[in-house]
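Long-time lurker, first post. I've been practising inverse folding by hand and with some scripts of my own, and I keep getting stuck on stretches where the structure tokens seem ambiguous. Below is the full token string for one chain I'm working on. Before anyone asks, I'm not after the true native sequence, just a reasonable design that respects the backbone. If someone could post their per-position residues I'd love to compare against what I wrote down in my notebook.
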């Protein structure tokens, strides 16, 4: 069990950021920064990204404001209770699944933040640098805990067409925890770790 004092210490060391994200806030974030996200975010997995990138729906046809927003790579478990939606679990999906689409989504819809796990590739990193966007790595294997940071399911889009896990959901979050691992200046913690690992492997191979 995590002690309250440890949680409080982590929260005090984190930067609270609010959606929609302003450009200056995005540019102020650096890899390694811990953040707590507050406000409205949207979910999006493979089908949503493919639809946005290939079909390019007009912004007025999307019921949620994406400009300045954060898209969460997540296929949430959501139940409809009476006339409301109840979120059960909301863990991150591996982000590289949508690498082929993300740069176009950032460019076309003005996305300022991405939440997921595992990081993304150079195409997305270049788009983040060009258009001002950050990647926020969140906790894997903690879907129930993260669901507790989601205070409300506001609405859903493409639910019947794509199915609940693949639909786009508008979520209200409070102190949603993440760490900046790709920033808007072209830095990637994932790439740095990969380079260090490759160098270690090279050294091991030479010593054999």
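-- Answer (accepted) --
I ran through it position by position. Result:
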């Amino acid at each position: 069990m995590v002690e309250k004092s440890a949680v409080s210490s982590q929260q005090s060391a984190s930067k609270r950021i609010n959606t929609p994200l302003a450009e200056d806030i995005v540019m102020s974030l650096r890899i390694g920064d811990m953040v707590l996200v507050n406000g409205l975010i949207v979910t999006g997995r493979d089908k949503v990204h493919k639809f946005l990138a290939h079909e390019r729906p007009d912004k007025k046809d999307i019921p949620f404001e994406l400009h300045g927003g954060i898209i969460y790579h997540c296929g949430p478990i959501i139940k409809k209770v009476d006339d409301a939606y109840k979120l059960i679990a909301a863990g991150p999906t591996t982000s590289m699944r949508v690498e082929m689409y993300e740069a176009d989504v950032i460019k076309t819809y003005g996305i300022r933040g991405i939440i997921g796990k595992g990081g993304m590739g150079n195409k997305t990193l270049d788009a983040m640098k060009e258009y001002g966007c950050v990647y926020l790595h969140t906790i894997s294997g903690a879907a129930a805990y993260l669901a507790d940071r989601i205070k409300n399911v506001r609405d859903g889009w493409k639910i019947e067409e794509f199915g609940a896990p693949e639909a786009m959901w508008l979520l209200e979050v409070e102190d949603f925890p993440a760490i900046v691992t790709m920033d808007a200046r072209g830095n990637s913690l994932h790439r740095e770790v990969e380079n260090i690992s490759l160098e270690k492997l090279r050294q091991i191979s030479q010593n054999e």
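A couple of notes from the structure itself: The chain has eight helices and nine strands. Confidence is low (pLDDT under 50) at residues 1-9. Happy to go over any region you disagree with.
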